[in-house]
Amino acid sequence: MALLAAEGDTAAFGALVRLHQSKLRGFLLRMTKGNGALADDLAQETFLEAFRKIEQYGTGTFFGWLCAIAYSRYLMEARKRKLESLEGAPDLAEDAPEAHTASAARIDLERAMARLAPQQRAALTLCYALGFSNEEAAAAMKIPLGTLKSHVNRGRGQLAGLLAAWKS
Fold first, then answer.
1. What is the pTM (predicted TM-score) of this model?
2. In terms of CB atoms within 10 Å, which end of the chain has fewer, N or C?
3. Average pLDDT for 20-44
């Protein structure tokens, strides 16, 4: 389908958008720390850029290529807005329920992910939530494989520390 889109088939591109839009928005939601409006804007910008540059799509998965564009758009927006200040980052201890349920654990995980550096958050999301191989994630983030592995390891370590309160 991506090859048809690359040849100018707008219906094929539309099908690719429908196929990947929810996963891409989920990735961007995590990157923007739950800011749905910003995630939607970035997803739209990503698809527009992908449409304009569809002839540049080469090897690998189309979704991986989209994530590379989305991550680049996110970084540009983060620099512009200075999104990565920890002001307003949720505190894991606030509003903690007496007994954790599966949904409370998910909320804790999202809060902990929001506290990670953007590179760590992206690496963990791509590798664990989206199932990318390390090589695919490194390509999507446009970083060396060793750097990706470092981001994954550091992110996992920080998540373990942040979630330790939940485990006890």
1. 0.81
2. C
3. 95
